[in-house]
Write a structure and sequence with these properties.
The complex is a heterotrimer of chains A (252), B (307) and C (325). Chain A has nine helices and ten strands. Chain A has 252 residues and is α/β, with parallel strands linked by helices. Chain A has two domains: 1-81 and 168-252, 3-Layer(aba) Sandwich (Rossmann fold); 92-166, no CATH class. In chain A, the strands form two sheets. In chain A, strands 6-7-8-3-9-10 form a six-stranded mixed β-sheet, with helices on both faces. In chain A, strand 7 (169-173), helix 6 and strand 8 form a beta-alpha-beta unit. Chain A starts with 5 loop residues before the first strand and ends with a helix. Helix content of chain B is 75%, strand content 3%. Chain B has a two-stranded antiparallel sheet. The termini of chain B are far apart. Chain C has 325 residues and is an all-alpha fold. The radius of gyration of chain C is 19 Å and the shape is globular. Chain C has one domain (3-314): ABC transporter involved in vitamin B12 uptake, BtuC, CATH 1.10.3470. Chain C starts with a helix and ends in an 11-residue tail after the last helix. In chain C, helix 2 (30-54) runs parallel beside helix 6. The chains are: A alpha/beta (252), B mainly alpha (307), C mainly alpha (325). Chains B and C meet through helix 4, helix 9 and helix 11 of B and helix 5, helix 9 and helix 11 of C.
Chain lengths: 252, 307, 325
């Protein structure tokens, strides 16, 4: 019996009379790429928020790295090895790409009550940051202010920052959002390269990417997981087709 | 402690609270719906007081004066909103703070130029300046009772508007999520202008009623402004109900605190120490209360926003 | 820092350094005290800029810490303790403690709440000071200049001036290092995107609180010097309009820079001093209504003045407010 990397038990979250997460049970296995899909309003964003720490569930439990993280603060989860990227690009616009990643590294390099040495010249931060940028394909864009990067590059930067915190689990919230064909292909390759070293929970609407990447897929509808399994299984599942893939095929 | 004195102070505290509510009501809506810091709200209190004093003089009638001052204040509210505040909505809070700070300087100076720097006398007509003894042995100024009555009436009116009308629904929706309301196609600009002008009227009304009780002078609004802030912090931004409860709470705590605290302290320390520490602590009381509530509920008692 | 920024900072400091000899040559000693006053407010403004410009915390009660520092000196002086070596550290410690306390409560909130709460706490201190009958209450009380065991005589305007100058210089240098340090990066990045900072693993609250406390401490030093300058302390220094004025100095001078607030303090205080005179020259007795010019000027600066005086001299540098100071 493999110990799950992340275990979700009986998770419930309501906003007034709106039930966003409805008694959700899910195990994420170590090293897998697990995609969570579902129609809009299915509660994917709410789920991510509860996993990352932005929202506290009403009921239920989330276990990660052997600890109950249900009520843990966001920075504490990051310290345990949980990293996330945001659906709407959330980087440090006023800083260069290198600075962005360096900050992520700094966060896990002990406390930052250091008042004297210039951080932007510190090789202990710069070198790993540069390496992370190269790994992600932005090696020569380090000195560009983040605001001046293209949309696709910014999404890449998001991933780089998440990776720089040396996480064991990555929560990726629509990493392909707003990307064109080429950029999406590059991103898929990148994520495939991460398989094995990291566990990835992926929320995505881009079905090509999902079926290319995912080891397993969970389908979320009205806050409930209606199916979990390998991509081929999910494709064939009648309930899933009815609820989700049917309309997706019409849109595709 | 003389129970009649205590009773009188309780009424005073309630009346003070009602005044605070009138001033805070408009402000909390502006904060909540427009997400805008408006430091110049105190100036509206002042403007109301000055207009009322002048109109009362012109018409020779207290009621007549107010009847003119109220629409005048509304008009000024509309003007200020359109000319000065509209550009500030999209700006960050720092810009709003500074710009409305500039407005305060401007308003105080305008008032000084038009009416002079010396405080105006705003008197009460005879029929309002007496005392009434509805509790035997405890005469209480009629005017203060009127203020309480008017304040409660306005509070009831606000409640009716906010809870029972379509406009009120828009206001509550706006306080909860102003982007959504705009997305629904409601004419946001007009809504904002109306809400602001309405708040201006309430603040001005408070100023008008305060005139006879305190001095009408440049800068009279600012102390009220800061206390209104405390009301909003405690009550929760965007919440009328919160503002009402917080305002009454603060009115009572402040008024009764000033009376009771020195007495209370005398039980524990020497009289001289109590008499120095008493007033000192009393003046800080509402802020200490604010801090205590913040520790437990940083969003205030009844925050309108979910985020 | 770009070359232009370095030049601007150096020239400003040199100008301040040569004020005393100039005032002696032209026999205008009044200006030494006036410039000392500007430097003291510059120190307060720089300390505010740390949390406001770099940290993004719109603290509207900063003048309170100047008051704490001033009163610390005044109260000690009242009880016969004129030793500067005791007064100044205590003034800074008192400001630090109060800054820590207020900051701890205020920083649990953001946005509009934060602004109002910092204002309310400052107001609380103001009323507290007024109620201190023993120390002059509303009227304030006089205080002696601090003694520094004969090393320096603060009664001499020249020596006092250079003490302030050195303090300001040291503060500027220390902050220059601080904003570039790891700590500084946290504060600045938290301003840029606090949510991201937390997601990446920083508990931003404690760093912001430390920054807030540091700013309060520096402002307390300014207050201690202020008490010495005026030989007087009163609650007025904590009046909330002064908090607004310090903020104006930061914006006018250049938010998010270090020499900016120094320029802003100079500009603001010089305007305050000479605008009435200039208005009188245009129209008799207009000067007492200087606020009617000041108000709209302020609004105009807010709406149109990107980057303040600092940007006027250095704007070739960069487009968006990337702080490298």
């Amino acid at each position: 019996m493999i110990e799950p990397a992340l275990r979700i038990e009986g998770l419930c979250k309501s906003f007034g009379s709106l039930v966003a997460t409805d008694d959700l049970h899910l195990d994420i296995l170590p090293g897998e790429i697990h995609a969570i899909i579902g129609p809009n309003g299915a509660g994917k964003t709410t789920l991510i928020a509860q996993l990352s720490g932005e929202l506290r569930p009403d009921r239920g439990r989330v276990t990660f790295a052997g600890r109950d993280i249900t009520s843990m603060s966001i920075p504490a989860r990051s310290a345990l090895g949980l990293a996330r990227s945001f659906q709407i690009t959330s980087i440090f616009q006023d800083f260069t790409a290198l600075d962005n990643v360096a900050l992520a590294i700094q966060a896990h390099a002990g406390h930052s009550f250091r008042f004297w040495r210039p951080a932007q010249k510190d090789p202990a931060l710069r070198d790993p940051a540069q390496a992370a940028l190269e790994h992600i394909g932005l090696g020569d864009r380090g000195d560009v202010p983040a605001a001046n990067l293209s949309h696709g590059e910014q999404r890449q930067l998001e991933i780089a920052m998440a990776l720089a915190t040396e996480p064991s689990l990555l929560l990726l919230d629509e990493p392909m959002a707003g990307m064109g064909r080429d950029e999406s292909t590059r991103m898929v390759e990148l994520l495939q390269g991460l398989r094995g070293n990291h566990t990835i929970v992926l929320i995505e609407h881009d079905m090509d990417a999902v079926f290319a990447l995912a080891d397993r897929i969970t389908v979320l509808v009205y806050g409930r997981a209606i199916a979990t399994g390998a991509p081929a299984q999910i494709r064939a599942d009648a309930a899933v087709r009815a609820a989700y893939l049917g309309t997706e095929a019409a849109d595709a | 402690m003389d129970p009649l004195l205590l009773l009188e102070q309780t009424f005073n505290g309630f009346q003070f609270g009602i005044m605070l509510f009138l001033i805070a009501a408009g402000l909390t809506l502006v904060f909540g719906i427009m997400d805008m810091v408006n430091l110049a709200h105190g100036s509206l209190v002042m403007v109301g007081a000055y207009l009322a004093t002048t109109f009362i003089e012109w018409t020779g009638s207290f009621i007549g004066g107010l009847a003119l001052a109220i629409p005048a204040t509304f008009a000024i509210g509309v003007l200020v909103e359109i000319v000065a505040l509209r550009t500030l909505y999209r700006r960050n809070h720092l810009d709003q703070v500074l710009a409305t700070f500039g407005l305060i300087l401007f308003f105080n100076e305008i008032v000084r130029i038009v009416w002079g720097p010396i405080s105006l006398y705003s008197g009460l007509p005879d029929y309002l300046s007496g005392q009434v003894e509805f509790i035997p042995g405890a005469p209480y100024p009629v005017y203060r009772l009127i203020i309480i009555a008017v304040g409660l009436a306005v509070a009831a009116g606000i409640y009716l508007i906010v809870a029972k009308t379509r406009l009120g629904m828009l206001i509550r929706a706006g306080a909860s999520n102003n982007e959504m309301v705009g997305a629904l196609g409601i004419n946001i600009k007009s809504l904002f202008t109306f809400v602001f002008a309405l708040g201006a009227v309430f603040a001005g009304l408070a100023g008008m009623m305060l005139g006879p009780l305190t001095s009408v002078e440049p800068g009279m609004g600012e102390p009220w402004l800061i206390q209104a802030f405390v009301v909003i912090i405690i009550g929760g931004i965007g919440s009328i109900r919160g503002a009402f409860i917080a305002a009454i709470l603060i009115g009572m705590v402040d008024t009764l605190g000033r009376v009771l605290l020195p007495e209370f302290l005398r039980v524990f320390v020497a009289e001289a120490a109590a008499d120095t520490a008493g007033p000192a602590l009393a003046s800080m009381l509402i802020y200490i209360l604010m801090a205590a509530i913040l520790v437990v509920r940083p969003q205030g008692l009844f925050p309108a926003r979910n985020g | 820092m770009t070359k232009r920024q370095i030049w601007l900072s150096l020239i400003t400091l040199v100008l301040f350094a040569i004020v005393p000899p100039l005032t002696i040559i032209f026999d205008q000693p009044f200006y030494m005290d006036m410039m000392a006053r500007i430097m003291i407010f510059a120190m307060a403004a720089v300390s505010l800029d740390l949390i406001l410009g770099y940290g993004g915390m719109v603290s509207f009660g900063h003048a309170a810490y100047m008051g704490v520092g001033a009163y610390a000196v005044g109260i000690l002086s009242y009880y016969g303790i004129d030793n500067g070596f005791l007064q100044f550290p205590l003034a800074m410690a008192a400001s630090a403690i109060i800054g820590l306390a207020f900051g701890a409560m205020s920083l649990r909130t953001t946005g509009v709440y934060f602004i109002m709460i910092t204002l309310a706490f400052a107001q609380m201190l103001y009323f507290f000071a007024i109620s201190l009958e023993e120390f002059g209450g509303d009227d304030g009380m006089s205080s002696m200049r601090s003694e520094f065991a004969g090393l320096i005589d603060l009664n001499d305007s020249l020596q006092f001036y250079y003490l302030v100058f050195i303090c300001l210089g040291v503060v500027l240098y220390l902050l220059h290092r601080l904003v570039q340090s790891r700590f500084g990066m946290v504060i600045r990045a938290a301003r840029s995107n606090d949510k991201r900072m937390q997601a990446v693993g920083f508990s931003t609250y404690r760093y912001k609180l430390a920054g807030f406390t540091i700013a309060a401490t520096i402002c307390g030093l300014a207050g201690a010097l202020f008490a010495n300058l005026n030989e007087f302390v009163s609650p007025d220094v904590m009046h909330w309009t002064h908090s607004g004025e310090i903020m104006i100095m930061v914006i006018m001078g250049g938010i998010g820079t270090l020499i900016g607030p120094v320029l802003g303090a100079s500009a603001f205080l010089l305007l305050e001093e000479y605008l009435p005179e200039w208005m009188d020259m245009v129209m008799k007795d207009a000067g007492e209504h200087w606020a009617i010019i000041m108000g709209p000027v302020l609004i105009a600066i807010v709406l149109f003045g990107r980057g303040g005086i600092h940007a006027l001299f250095t704007s070739k540098a960069k487009a968006k407010g990337g702080n490298h100071d």
